[in-house]
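Minutes, project huddle
Topic: does the predicted pose make sense with magnesium ion bound?
PN asked that the exact inputs be recorded in the minutes so nobody has to dig through chat later. Recorded below.
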Amino acid sequence: MGIFENMLKDSESLFLNETELDFDYVPKIIKYRENQQQHMVTCIKPLFQNKNGTHLLITGKPGIGKTVAMKKVFEELEQETLDIIPIYINCWKKDTFYKIALYMCEKAGYKWTHNKKSDEIFKEACKLLNKKKVVFCFDEVDKLEEQSILYSILEDLYKKTVFLITNEKEWLAKLDQRIRSRMIPEILEFEPYSYDETKGILEQRKETAFVPDVWQEEAFEKVVEKTAELGDIRTGLFLLKESGNIAEGKSSKKITLEHAEKAIKKLDSFKIRDSKDLGDEEKFILDLVKEKPESTLTQIYEEYKKSYKQSYRTLQRKVRDMEEAGLLTIKENTTKQGGKTSTISVAGKKLTDF
Ligand SMILES: Nc1ncnc2c1ncn2[C@@H]1O[C@H](COP(=O)(O)OP(=O)(O)OP(=O)(O)O)[C@@H](O)[C@H]1O
Ligand SMILES: [Mg+2]
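Predicted holo structure (tokens), as shared on screen:
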């Protein structure tokens, strides 16, 4: 019987709440970001006194809690008052004036948007939102296609605070001068977590996502080490989940160093990006490339333009952004005639299924 002793039964799992390891899960407490959250609150405070708020540009490397800290502030704001409406916009998903104006209508409770132009629906949203106060967050703002929405918000909404989040510190310089001079945001920089902070965050997740005592200490240490080395908490969440899955796959009742090391090996060949962060167009492009790997940009454009009225340059920029995010690989080839073409493929296998 001995060799079967450590086997998991069908009904057994090492996970208690696997969804707590999802990248978009917002934990109850966001450790080590109290000061940054306090800064955000200070920017919103004037709205409580019926004054205009302070705007804020939030920057820092990927996976260090910018989005989650902000989402927590929005969550608590919603519980505190009905007078201030938080509007969160992920600019990978909503990158045009129209898409954002439409979402503002949804938040304002205005339904008659059908067959109306961008400007009209924006005006309707403002009419309603101006009865209250608004906090905007434009996350991944460097992916915003039409900056004019920022201009219109700054001009036409009376009482608001605008947060912009980006990895690119220099992005502010690319912002239209007319918007910049209306905004003059304060800057809040997120520093990477220390080793101990990384450990603290992962420990918190380990405790709520897994059955108690399934992690062998050295295996968990290994995951913390790798996460701290890469400086991205998403890596840690992936490693926790993947190690658990590998252990379950082997019907083991414990997650051992061997499982953690296997998970790390898997990680090395991938880059992480949350598929839920992707906009419709990016998903569409990714699907095209998946269907026909090694397509040239021109071939992709032929299909893309049938569904989206965008220029070739826009597609080119989107593909480059997707390469940067680790989703696509662009390979430069030289033709027999000496010309250059680029072929596009999906980068490795992704961590999350698309
Ligand atoms: N202090 C923390 N406590 C708990 N979880 C955290 C903390 N910081 C980050 N995380 C988790 O790590 C992951 C990455 O964090 P987040 O999405 O906020 O990164 P980000 O800084 O916005 O990165 P990016 O620039 O790539 O968007 C999320 O799943 C988040 O819940
Ligand atoms: Mg983010």
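Observations noted during the meeting:
- DSSP finds 14 helices and eight strands in the chain.
- Confidence is low (pLDDT under 50) at residues 349-354.
No decisions taken; revisit at the next huddle.
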